[in-house]
């Protein structure tokens, strides 16, 4: 009888990941993150000031780091096996509450935001501890992450009782300390599946680009005329250009570099730097662009206000600068064309204060098209060789 009783005792289990593919449950989880990104854009659109932009980017940073945690987690454990599936559903519910609180994350819903966020993050830590049961190195890394997470979430809870500059400073410190923990306390113990990890982070770029399309729809809610149609077409062209600049070659090379890195510290540090850290400016740049698109669709004939002009032109610039740093970290090569294009976007901000918003959007679209055309011609041989090599390696695998 005792043995039967023991057999019925429930156990919290986690099955280690063995496949490269991103699972349907992970895509389902990311749908909640879509709402969270949309809410960040809405927060900045409702308060289009420097303070509003700073708050939106801080919230986006906090949300990004929570998503990164689950991306690392599901590259260790199979999210559709054992109790992890139910834990993922619970995390989705918590993240949904966080997303709903975003518009008032610095005001009346600050405490609820911080509390729900803490639950989401602690759930990730708990699952990591389960997964690290027979792996002392992974468990040690998870304990270090738990300390950083507890500090960050604690500061957010404390920030909910303040306002103004002090509240913003507490948010900035919380995010900085939380994100710095994997860099400061080593990366030897972490594990990941390279193909899955690279694909998951590629998909998040598509999700962010989807927000720019949503912003076009929201911006056009007051009516559709010739100017709105032109702005919508140009907005899609800009989103397509940003997609092209990442997925044409960069994504393939990044996955190859991660897969070829030695397992352990080298691979983990590439994943941490190239994907967890340097992917954030790309996502933030897309979100800023989405804000610019939304405001452009609302008033296509009027010049952009300075904060929106910075978002419209600074967003693509930040995206490209992320690419420059991303390429340097992966292959130690410097992308001069993308750097120059980013600087040109920033230099055009004063002009955007005088030109109609539609004209500014047209300039953004044209510059990105020129950049793509230049790279396609200038790097045609290298691009062709890389794609053939990657295709050959995929067949060999």
- Summarize the main sheet: none
- Uncertain parts: 1-11
Q: State the domain count.
A: 2
Q: Structural class of the secondary structure composition? A: mainly alpha
Number of alpha- plus pi-helical segments: 17
Mean pLDDT: 88
Secondary-structure element series: HHHHHHHHHHHHHHHHH
Strand content: under 5%
Annotation, overall tally of beta strands: 0
Q: What is the CA-atom radius of gyration, in angstroms?
A: 22 Å
Question: What proportion of the residues is helical, as a percent range?
Answer: over 70%
Gap between N and C termini: 50 Å
The backbone outline, from C-alpha atoms, is globular
Secondary-structure map with pairings?
Layout: H1 2-7, H2 24-46, H3 50-73, H4 84-101, H5 110-131, H6 136-159, H7 164-184, H8 194-219, H9 226-247, H10 250-260, H11 265-277, H12 279-298, H13 306-331, H14 336-347, H15 349-352, H16 357-378, H17 380-396
Give a description of the structure.
The protein has helices spanning 2-7, 24-46, 50-73, 84-101, 110-131, 136-159, 164-184, 194-219, 226-247, 250-260, 265-277, 279-298, 306-331, 336-347, 349-352, 357-378, 380-396. It has 397 residues and is mainly α. It folds into two domains: 18-191, no CATH class; 206-397, no CATH class. Helix 8 runs antiparallel to helix 10 and helix 13 (306-331) runs antiparallel to helix 14. The longest helix is centred in the middle third of the chain and has 26 residues, at 194-219. It is globular.
């Amino acid at each position: 009888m005792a043995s039967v009783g023991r057999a019925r005792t429930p156990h919290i289990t986690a099955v280690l990941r063995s496949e490269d593919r991103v699972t349907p449950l992970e895509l389902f989880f990311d749908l909640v993150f879509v709402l969270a990104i949309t809410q960040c854009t809405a927060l900045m659109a409702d308060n289009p000031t420097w303070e509003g932009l700073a708050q939106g980017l801080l919230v986006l940073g906090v949300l990004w780091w929570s998503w990164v945690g689950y991306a690392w987690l599901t590259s260790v454990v199979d999210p559709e096996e054992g109790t992890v599936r139910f834990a993922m559903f619970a995390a989705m519910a918590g993240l949904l509450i966080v997303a709903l609180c975003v518009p008032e994350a610095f005001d009346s819903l600050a405490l609820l935001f911080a509390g729900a966020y803490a639950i989401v993050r602690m759930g990730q830590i708990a699952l990591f501890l389960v997964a690290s049961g027979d792996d002392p190195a992974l468990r040690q890394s998870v304990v270090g992450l738990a300390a950083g997470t507890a500090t960050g979430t604690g500061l957010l809870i404390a920030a909910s009782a303040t306002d103004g500059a002090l509240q913003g400073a507490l948010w900035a410190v919380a995010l900085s300390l939380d994100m710095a923990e994997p860099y400061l306390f080593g990366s030897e113990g972490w594990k990941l599946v390279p193909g899955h990890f690279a694909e998951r982070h590629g998909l998040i770029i598509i999700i962010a680009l989807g927000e720019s399309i949503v912003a076009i729809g929201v911006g056009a809610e007051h009516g559709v005329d010739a100017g709105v149609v032109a702005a919508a077409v140009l907005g899609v062209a800009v989103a397509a250009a940003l997609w092209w600049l990442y997925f044409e070659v960069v994504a393939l090379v990044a996955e190859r570099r991660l897969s070829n890195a030695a397992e352990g510290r080298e691979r983990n540090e590439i994943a941490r730097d190239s994907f967890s850290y340097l992917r954030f400016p790309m996502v933030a740049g897309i979100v800023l662009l989405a804000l610019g698109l939304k405001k452009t669709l609302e008033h296509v004939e009027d010049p952009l206000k300075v904060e929106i002009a910075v978002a419209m032109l600074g967003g693509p610039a930040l995206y490209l600068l992320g690419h420059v740093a991303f390429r340097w970290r992966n292959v130690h090569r410097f992308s001069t064309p993308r750097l120059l294009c980013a600087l040109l976007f920033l230099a055009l901000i004063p002009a955007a204060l005088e030109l109609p918003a539609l004209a500014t959007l047209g300039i953004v679209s044209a510059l990105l098209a020129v950049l793509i055309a230049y790279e396609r011609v200038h790097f045609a041989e290298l691009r062709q060789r890389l794609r053939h090599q990657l295709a050959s390696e995929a067949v060999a695998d």
